[in-house]
Amino acid sequence: MNYFLIIRGPLASGKSTISRKLCNLLNAEQISIDTILDEHNLAKDREEGYISQKNFKKANEIVVPIIKKLLDKGKVVIIDGNFYWKSQIDDLIEKLKKYRHFIFTLNASVEICIDRDVERGKTHGEEAVRVVHKKSTELIYGNVIDITQPLDKAIKQILSFLPQN
Question: What is the pTM of this model?
Fold first, then answer.
């Protein structure tokens, strides 16, 4: 059974942690949009103070062939990132329109995200967390998951929306 998931939400909301755990449970492949942006030097071009829609769409162009190859092999693919531009999500869905997809928005307060950012090895800083939180929470897309609940409960909630093998 092949499909892709988009796990989106604010900086330090738990996207990568949730994605890794889901990958283990679903024998899925994870693609981090943040990693693609960094590896291809796409994080510098700004629009309204945020990474530009144009560069997020360039990141989509990079990952789509990889995602298609994995999906065509029957894999589940989990894509995580802030996805704060609706145009980026729409572009990705359009490029992958022949495949089933599920979108989850992780929801946590800015204070929780700041605390989580401080706890991790590669901190982005309070100001960055606040700025990205503001932009990413302007868009509610897909199923909203309360990420302040225990991690296992959040994962069970996500799994409840997915097809059972």
Answer: 0.94
CB count within 10 Å of CB 27 equals: 10
126-135 tens-digit pLDDT: 999 999 999 9
Q: Strand 29-32 vs strand 77-81: parallel, antiparallel, or unpaired?
A: parallel
Residue boundaries of the structural domains of the chain? 4-159
pLDDT at 100 over 80: yes
CATH architecture of the domain with residue range 4-159: 3-Layer(aba) Sandwich (3.40)
84 close to 50: Cβ distance less than 8 angstroms: yes
